[in-house]
Structures are given as C-alpha cells and as structure tokens.
Amino acid sequence: MSEKIDQLYNFALLDEDAKREIRRKLLKAVALPGHLVPFASRDLPIARGWGTGGLQITLAIITPDDTLKVIDQGDDESVNAVNLRRLIGRTTGVATTTDTASASLIQTRHRIPEEPLRADQILVLQVPMADPLRWVEPNLERATAMHSESDYGKMWVYMYESVVRAGDLRIASQYPVMVNRRYLMDTTPIPRWDVPKLHMAETLYLFGAGREKRIYAVPPYTLVEPLQFEDYPFRTEYQPDQRCARCGAEQVFLTTHFVPDASGGRWVSTCSDAAYCAKRLAEAEALL
Amino acid sequence: MGYVAVRGGSEAVARAEELVACLRLLGGSTPLQLPQIRDQLRHAVSRAMHEGALYAPLLAALAVKQAEGDSIEAAFLLRAYRTTLPRVIASLPVSGRDMLCLRRISASFKDIPGGQILGPATDYLIRLLQPTLADEDVAAVAQAAEQYARLVEMGGRRSGEWGCFPKVADYMRQEKMIVDIPAEPVSSDPFDITREPLTFPCPRSARLQAMAQADTSSLMSFAYSSVRGYGDAHPTLVELRYGYLPVQVAHPLTGEAITIGEIEATEAEVASKAHSVVNSNEPPRFNVGYGFAFGQSELKVMSMAILDSVLTQARAGSLSGESGPAADEEFVLLHCDGIEASGFVAHYKLPHYVTFEADLRVLDRARDHVAQRPTRLGQLVDQALEEQV
User: Fold this and answer.
1) Distance from A134 to chain B by nearest Cα, in Å?
2) Whose C-alpha in A74, B14, B280, B367 is 20 to 30 A from the C-alpha of B28?
3) pTM here?
C-alpha cells in the first residue's frame, strides 16, 4: 500500500507550482536580507509548528544530487529530525548524511552546526515566530509598518526593561539581530552561541516559518549584528571553564543530560552537536 | 401567527427529540456498541471524561454515542450526571510520581533519569490517510494483539524496567532551577469549584480545577495566543507523562491509605523563561506551570500548564512586554468552560421576543431622533427652497 501511496506524490512531495512560488520568494528574501517575505505555505503531512516552514524550503530547493543532513537540537538522531529526514528521503530518494562537511543541504531546528559551513552548502532553519517585534507588537499590520520605517524603538525599550529587571538582556535564544544595518531579524531559537555564526558567513542561510507563512534569508557576507547596549554588550552562553564530558571540546555549545551508571547516574554536559562530538571522538581514536 | 410556535411547545419538543433519535440510525448501519466506542474512540471518551469531570469510561462511551460524537454535548451529559452523585469522600492527594508510565518525555534535557519513553505517540506520524483502515475486519484484532505482545516484549527488554520514574521537576527543584510548589492554605477539604463559587482572586487549586474541566480547544486557543504573540509565555516542557495512576483514600476508621482503583491520566509541567520575582531576597528561578487531565490528553495538559504558568507570573508581576488576554485570570477562567460557553452561546436560539420588542422601540426612537435632527445639509436645502419661493 505504501508504494502505491508514494507514487501518488511528486518528487519532493510539493507540486511544481508550490516549489516555484517558494523559490521566487526565496530570491526576493535573498535580495532583501532580513526582510520577511510572505508566502502561501502549503499544508503538509507534518503538524504545523514542527518544522513545516523549513521543510517547504528544503523540498522546494532539493535536487536529486543533494546530500541531506537534518538535525534537531544539534542531533541527527532526535526524533523530529529522524521523522523529517524519513519524509524527505522517502519523497526524494536523495542521499542523507550525519556529517556536516559532506552535506550540501542541511535542515535544522534550534542549532547551527559547530563545524564551519562552506559557500557550497545551504542551511535551512525552521522558524517558529518569524517577526522579532512579536513580543512588543503582536499586530502584524502595525509590525510591518514598523519594519518598513526601521522603527525599532519599542524593541530597545523591551531590551532596556529586561536589563533593569533581570540584569541582562533577557532573551536567551531567538536573539534579535540587525541585518545589513536595515532590518531587525529573529534568529530563530538558536542559542546566543550560534548568533555570531550568521555574521559575514560564507554560507547561505534560509529561514522558513510555515505557520506564520514567512520566508527570510541571510545571504553570504552579510552584516548580522546582535542588539546590545554599550554597557550591556551581547554575551553568549560560553563559560571559560566549560568542556564537553565526552570529546573534551571547549569552544562549543553544551547541553546537560543524565547519564545512568552503576551508582544510579549523574548529570553531565556534552556537545549539543552530536555529529561533531562523534567525529572528534573518532579522530581522537584514530590517533591512538 | 408568530406566537403559535411558542405555545404548543411541549408537543414540538417531544417530536424534535424523537426525530434526533431516528436520525442517528436512519443510515441503516449497525448500532455502535459501548465497548467499541471506549476502545476505538479512546480520545473522544477521554475528552468527554475530563471535560465532563467524571472518570467513568463506559458512561463516557455512552455519552459519546448519545451525543453522536459532539465533544461538548458528551461532556455536558456526563457533567449533568455527575451533579446527581453524592460526594462520598475526597481521595488522598494523587502524585504523578506514582504513575505507571506508558510514556514520559522531556523537552528540557536530552536524557533524563529513567530515560525518555516515547510510548504511544502520534506526534511524529506522517499524516497520510490509511485506506487499509477502511476495510478492516475482525482478523485485525488478533493481529493487533500479537503485534502489541511483540512491542511490549521489545520495550521490556530494552529499558529493563517498566513502572515508576523520578520526576524531572523534582530534580529541577532540587537544583533550584524552578520555584518550589507554592504553599496553599492547608485545609482538610480541597477547594471544590462545584461547591464553592469561583471568585477572584482565587486560590491556585481553584484555577487548576477550573482548567482541568475546561474545554480543550478553548484552553488551546488561549495558550496559543500567549505563546504566539499576545503574551510573554516562553514555555519549555519539563516533563509530560501518560499512564496509570493509583487513587487512594484514607480508611474512614483506621485512617490507613487504601487503593480504590487506578485512572488513566496525563500530566505536564512547563518551565517558563520569565524569572520568579516573588521573593526578591532569593536568587531568581524559573516559574512552573502544571497541567492534568484524564486519559491521554496531551494537548489539554500542555495548554493548561502554559496558562497556569502565565497566570502565576501575571500575579507575581514578572511578565514583561505584551501580557495579552491569556494573562488575565478572570478572562481565562470565566471563558474556558465548554459547558458554560456553549450553553450561553446557544441560548440565543431561545425566544427573545420580549427583549427584541424592547430593542425595536429603542430603534424607533433613534430613527425619530435622527430624522428630526437638523443637519447642516438639511438647513442649506431648506434655505435654498425658501429663497426659491
């Protein structure tokens, strides 16, 4: 039955009209870095909010020659990543990989891989909110006017209030950035650690918000500057004494998790980028 | 003539009732049996139970059948039955720690003590219609039983143990990441919104009780508004668990705890990004929201937990940015009950001849008023006419 069902669908699931619309919107997004471009956003067999925006971009630009990597929280084996990879794989037949360096197309949720990305790679980010003004102006019509006038005063007040209340810019992930000194942009819930990777990067970053029906982009070599105050500069989660308990990496984003052992178990911090961690371990073993 | 419909009402009402009963069976298909509904429409039965606030799977199946699948009507039938029951005894507090988990997941940490158990989850299903379900026959029952036995065996081998697991929230409390369980005034009887009026400000137990029997879709919309943009909620799922919970009562004579049965339930805690500012002498911690419902009702408990955390923060004054309607406790609690909301919206089908008659008189007076009001244009016209004369 499943074979019969599969034959019902076009290459990469979406029909060619949907793909063409998304590709056109992507071109516009690349031409206007950081600008939110509305798109129709088709229904998919995946629930809204589970990566349908990123998925539509991936499905619109993937070619049979691509090598695909899908990560969620930095991990290829995270259930949602497995699920999306299964769907894209089943409807395209493209090769998949967990190795960042060998992927031509990477779809991700909440992380940018630790290994530097190249000019011949594309990173597609899944976006929940799209509009960085959401917390200060939920009405989209008014927020659009604010973007068109570069009127970001309310956002600065929000940031100031968070400094006064919490002693820091109280935005942990989804940190707002100015793109090309023109548009305020939502970085998606990547940790602050990943934000500098967007700045003057070699890679094309594409952002898709399915539920919010918006596409935006950061093309290569674009200025991406986090909002900050002179006396409260942008800081990442990095701590000088941090270290991955598995591979020993220091310049990475770590997550805490529970490791069972004979005495019950303990909490440890390891690389959130699981493939990077595994690669480092394999390299270390090869040296021995 | 219009008044004929109002009189003779009892006859019309009786005939309408009979017509409804006929329509259900007019298609000629075999009447549904209650066990079929209970087993094969699990979620409809669960929803009737938590919104009807009565744990009774077979009665809920009956309600679903009678309501022809209308979730609010089914819950209404159960609520109307529940209200006739005497309140025999309050159970001892039930803790999610004692849940025999079929599923427990955390979005806060990749690995948790006891491990993540996906269990029966539809989250990752690719939503393709399954044509094979259309022609399912009795052979499928035996196949499902075999498949289930295989899955249980595989699961048992892999995790090594089935049963109770430590709560992620307990670890986070111990590490002072999240706030302690707020102290409520100790009383022998829990606050009961069916016995005491809900007035504001209300205790958190009343808030949780109101949301536990609320309409799932309403809670979901309020919670969605808060996380989407009309609010300051940034929830992270600490843990969601689904399984069987033993219910105990204290023996009326000896005081000894006695298990009287178990219920199928789902519970969730979410941590919110906003820091607690309740006690400014202590270091800030994340706030926590709690959700609970009968059956496997994940959307409901997530929505409830998000709203609980938003409402707690709103009370503590720790929200920033747009707080939105979901941060208003009265707005949420007085509009989330499906039985109350559906009843009032539907009541506009009742005759309103008297009030409408009164409205018409007011409309008449308004028309007269406007007609008599001298307008600038009217004055100019009058003036021109006079000059012509």
Assistant:
1) 5
2) B14
3) 0.82
